Backbone:
């Protein structure tokens, strides 16, 4: 075996230039593929984590709420639920939430808004909402003050200290009605949120939709320590709670983001395919040439008693040596670039930036340094090189030695 | 028992298209220790016969027995293994693996035979010394003359301790001095190790060294002379 590797190695360096050229094709393909994929997956990860930080890895609802998000599918929080969730390992945070649509008005202006009842302290720990306040202050403790998005405040012509009137449908058909002082105005990256969101203390929101019994919620957002355990934790929570509740993963809640990613990923895969076809063709033609020009030598090796099975290894080693050199150099070149761009992401400007903001995502291009990006590309190159040595392998296990002598 | 016994060998090339009758009923016995030349005009069937005797090709009709083994009975893999242990080859040219040194080339066949490393080295060096290129053992074929390359090929063929060595025009690409040297070496190996050589040639000087000359024409043996004195 060692001799076969030695022969393969020396065969490669007999025609140094061709080998270097072929390895360079691998390097280039892998380098471009890595940069491309790292950028793609980086932006996917960014989109997902922005989404997840809003909705949580999992949400507990009353059964049916996901399909029909009406206030009538709210549920009353029980102490036992908190205990049950606290008993499950790997949950870092549980945020209670109550969402309902309502009409808002100030002076002559009216507008439909989304009221989000939150626990201001927990919410702040989760996504640092207090840092987004541009006027007024972030409320703490129990009171009825509300926070408005800047676009909404602009539309309603309101300032901090003004009083907002809310009128809507409450729980179980009652009419919800209330007057609230604006304590602060926030600016989030998302245009939609800025123009329709009203944050309210959870308690106040509960009183707004149903003042007769406390603890009404539409969701419990659950945040996990290890996002990879999503499915197993989902099952665990489903088992622990009774069947009145549904547990929905972010993959369902953010299915539009996943769909966007899927479509984008296809175009990425097509680019990769083209890139790799070029590289594979380079390896293939080199290995084929090397095999063909050594027909006579191989015929002599078989004549004197070398099994074809072993001869085939020479060709396989030649292919692998080229691709491994290409992979190592490709990884060495791409990794520093990717690591740099991971920690210093490229800022996005113009229309693209606006689109990012609409998805509530910071407009930068972060690069992914996840192992799977590197691993998958390396495996693809190895598989392709194995495939491109397939023809020489077939040739070597079949060729007629006497014909080879005549060439 | 003869080392080789060829019985009524026929070989037809291109049986389906334009058939060429390369061998037409050859009977031949080769005994241990012979130093035999196969001679005949170009196209007479020398190469065809040697390929069949060496198990590189199969006859269209007839049988080859090598020490009692009928080559027909072997699978293609068994045949390769049979060649490895029983038959040595020296081809006309480009016999050697170009990326391996003279020593590595000689060791290579021993490695195929799974001879241990130390023994391999020893044997390779001994044989390379015997064929007169002890000072060039670390040279690659490209750094050796044609004659020297052929001597390495002889050393490699001998290294495997075959029952016989087949050489198809081993001197065809050599000048007269190298031809003489190579024949001297082959003859000496024949004496020293009692190795059996069968070689095809056009070359009168090579014929002059042979102990037996088998003449072939049109795929038939038309003469078989033994020279006791040589
Ligand atoms: N693969 C082949 N296909 C068809 N015909 C062949 C093939 N090999 C040899 N022949 C024919 O068989 C006959 C014998 O050829 P062979 O090579 O055995 O002759 P030779 O005695 O070795 O000749 P030379 O002295 O020129 O080497 C020739 O007529 C040749 O054309
Ligand atoms: Mg011939």
Residues:
């Amino acid at each position: 075996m060692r001799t076969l590797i030695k022969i393969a190695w020396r065969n490669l360096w007999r025609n140094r230039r061709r080998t270097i050229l072929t390895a360079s094709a691998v390097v280039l393909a892998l380098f471009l593929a890595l940069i491309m994929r790292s950028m793609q997956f980086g932006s996917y990860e960014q989109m997902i984590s922005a989404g997840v930080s809003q909705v949580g890895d999992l949400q507990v609802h009353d059964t049916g709420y996901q399909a029909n998000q009406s206030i009538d599918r709210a549920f009353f929080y029980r102490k036992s639920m908190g205990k049950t969730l606290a008993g499950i390992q790997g949950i870092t945070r549980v945020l209670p939430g109550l969402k309902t649509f309502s009409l808002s008005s100030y002076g002559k202006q009216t507008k439909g808004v989304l009221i989000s009842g939150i626990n201001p302290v927990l919410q702040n720990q989760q996504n640092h909402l207090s840092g987004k306040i541009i006027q007024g202050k972030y409320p703490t403790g129990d009171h009825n003050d509300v926070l408005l998005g800047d676009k909404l405040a602009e539309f309603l012509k309101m300032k901090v200290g003004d009083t907002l009137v809310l009128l809507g449908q409450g729980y179980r058909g009652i009419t919800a009605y209330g007057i609230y002082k604006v304590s602060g105005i926030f600016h989030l990256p998302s245009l939609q949120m800025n123009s329709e969101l009203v944050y309210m203390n959870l308690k106040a929101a509960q009183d707004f939709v149903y003042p007769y019994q406390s603890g009404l919620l539409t969701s419990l957002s659950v945040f996990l320590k290890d996002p990879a355990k999503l499915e197993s934790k989902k099952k665990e929570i489903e088992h622990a709670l009774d069947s009145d509740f549904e547990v929905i993963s972010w993959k369902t809640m953010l299915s539009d983001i996943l769909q966007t990613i899927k479509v984008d990923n296809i175009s990425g895969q097509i680019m990769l395919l083209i890139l790799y076809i070029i590289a594979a063709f380079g390896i293939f033609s080199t290995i084929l040439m090397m095999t063909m020009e050594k027909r006579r030598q191989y015929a002599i090796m078989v004549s004197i008693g070398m099994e074809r099975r072993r001869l085939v290894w020479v060709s396989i080693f030649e292919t692998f040596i080229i691709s491994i050199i290409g992979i190592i150099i490709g990884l060495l070149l791409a990794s520093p670039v990717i690591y740099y761009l991971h920690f210093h992401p490229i800022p996005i400007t113009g229309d693209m930036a606006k689109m990012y903001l609409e998805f509530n995502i910071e407009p930068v291009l972060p690069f992914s340094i996840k192992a799977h990006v590197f691993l998958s590309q390396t495996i693809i190159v190895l598989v392709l090189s194995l495939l491109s040595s397939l023809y020489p392998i077939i040739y070597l296990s079949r060729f007629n030695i006497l014909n080879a002598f005549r060439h | 028992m003869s080392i080789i016994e060829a019985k009524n060998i026929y070989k037809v090339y291109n049986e389906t298209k334009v058939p060429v009758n390369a061998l037409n009923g050859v009977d031949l016995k080769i005994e241990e220790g012979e130093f035999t030349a196969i001679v005949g005009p170009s196209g007479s069937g020398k190469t065809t016969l040697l390929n069949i005797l060496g198990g590189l090709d199969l006859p269209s009709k007839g049988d080859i027995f090598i020490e009692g083994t009928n080559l027909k009975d072997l699978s293609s893999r068994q045949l390769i293994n049979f060649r490895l242990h029983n038959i040595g080859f020296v081809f006309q040219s480009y016999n050697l693996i170009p990326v391996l040194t003279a020593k590595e080339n000689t060791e290579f066949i021993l490695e195929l035979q799974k001879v241990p490393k130390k023994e391999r080295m020893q044997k390779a060096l001994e044989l390379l010394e015997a064929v007169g290129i002890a000072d060039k053992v670390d040279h690659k074929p490209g750094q050796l003359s044609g004659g020297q390359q052929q001597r390495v090929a002889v050393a490699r063929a001998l290294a495997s301790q075959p029952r016989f060595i087949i050489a198809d025009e081993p001197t065809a690409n050599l000048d007269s001095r190298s031809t003489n040297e190579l024949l001297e070496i082959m003859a000496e190996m024949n004496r020293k190790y009692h190795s059996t050589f069968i070689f095809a040639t056009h070359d009168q000087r090579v014929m002059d060294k042979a102990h037996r000359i088998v003449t072939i024409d049109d795929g038939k043996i038309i003469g078989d002379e033994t020279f006791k004195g040589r």
Q: What stands out?
A: The pocket of magnesium ion (ligand 2) is lined by residues B 46-47, 168 (CB under 6 Å). The radius of gyration of chain B is 17 Å. The longest strand of chain B covers residues 20-30.
